[in-house]
């Protein structure tokens, strides 16, 4: 019996590519394929495509009970954007700039409680498997490997993928959904050169709330052509916002390789920098107008050869703050208690180094 | 009245040991008393047989133990609570299967667990949290740089890493967070929506933790050992309906000969060796008791059980 896909948004059954190929670990069979359980009216599960039950539809499949947990595809993104208070952030940068590593850093810092110095806390995710997948790759990194995480290659990705977070603040009173793109650098390189490529590869651009412009700091220091490429990408990001300014976090990655502290930078503190770096970052930042919100951050994911992300969460939290347009009050079934708080100890703010 | 309690916990998290010890205690001097002998006691016998021999219950056997129904009475602060407890043990590896296989591994039993009548008891074992911070290179760095994250390997006790802010590690609680999300989704809960039922978090094998951690209190150990889960609970539950306990169900590691011998010498049964700690309210001192059924008592009575 041939396998059939249970994902209505996938073209596998018609001979097309697997919709989840971008987000599945190598060697993993797609969970949509063939093994999707079919629930009988009595509540028992049967496994295997084509298992004949009165509950199945004409295609022999049933809708999924839960989300898949991998990175979201474009269709799932569209559905999520209809949900309460979503924020879509473009993680943009050329090949090997450190985009996926930045996402790993965000996840690891969040999972280690480092959002505690902000008002935002983790409240859930629809892509826990996706986060785990990229983080596991980083944790198993060996010094001899050239990349900390597998490169998000244009050959692997057939559709954009997005990592999802629910974050809440004020004791869970308000929440937001964050969607971070995980796209190959080649897409951005093509978009920089040709505006039309944006429509082809990045159909989500009109809906983007803010961007992380990811810049490889060591390369920025020594390669003027790279600086020019970053400026082009910056201008495309600005252009795509149209008349409405969108915040951009300028993220200088691999700071540990140039002895730069992972931190949030201000014009005053930036004067401590290597003049060559300062000049180049100013050239990038000066391309924005005064009405546009720009944050400058330096990040690192390694420290003397080990995985130790620093400063990676700060740009995301800044972007959330810069894009607050509305927050949706949560519904509470239980009465709220303003005193007595038996939940106990609340974590002190993270005492990480900041400038 | 049938009181349905959901047990949740990963591999070797101490669910079966607590259930077995609580069953044994309910036939002794505990505030929890068995009202009458249930029709079928096979699951409880499986759970308690090994404990009576001062050994931990066999996980494979307990996962097959099935649904447990037992009429109980809890001696509360002001009144007694009589109820029929319905609870089912399960193999902690099911959480891994749910994370990997999604609804293929989600059985009707999980649908029932998602609808507890009093709440959920979540078992976590901080001493075996997989806080592997990175790779060999980081371990080398840790040995020469005090600011670097402490590196722990599976089975090691987190001595400093769960206290200091510098350590980073792969979150070990992801499968539990996902299962909790599925349970909420089954009930059509929105993010941040707070269930009316209670959530008891039981940090098992409390005696395995270093003294400086136990002095910090179970609430802090939860936050430091399972930060992702802590934030998830914090943002999705009413704080007044969450209680964190530190539990040493057997008062020591039964795999250690000296622990078993000490019990033997003192003529003390496993069920009499429990130690449980909790913080009654924020900022208050840590309280302790030998009442192993206290998490269950708190489930049915609320904060009055802790007085």
Characterise this structure.
The complex is a heterodimer of chains A (355) and B (307). Chain A is of the alpha/beta class and 355 residues long. Helix content of chain A is 27%, strand content 19%. In chain A, strands 3, 4, 5, 6, 7, 8, 9, 10 and 13 form a nine-stranded mixed β-sheet that branches. In chain A, a hairpin with a 5-residue loop joins strand 1 (38-39) and strand 2 (45-46). Chain A starts with 37 loop residues before the first strand and ends in a 26-residue tail after the last strand. Mean pLDDT of chain A is 75; it is low at 35-60 and 326-355. Chain B has 307 residues and is of the alpha/beta class. Chain B is built from twelve helices and nine strands. Chain B has helices spanning 15-25, 42-52, 59-63, 93-101, 108-113, 136-144, 174-186, 211-216, 218-225, 227-236, 257-265, 294-301; strands at residues 2-9, 32-34, 67-75, 80-88, 119-124, 198-203, 242-248, 275-278, 287-289. In chain B, a hairpin with an 8-residue loop joins strand 8 and strand 9. In chain B, helix 1 crosses helix 2 and helix 4 (93-101) packs across helix 7 (174-186). Residues 131-166 of chain B have low confidence and may be disordered. Chains A and B meet through helix 2, strand 4, helix 3 and strand 12 of A and helix 6, helix 7, helix 9, helix 10 and strand 7 of B.
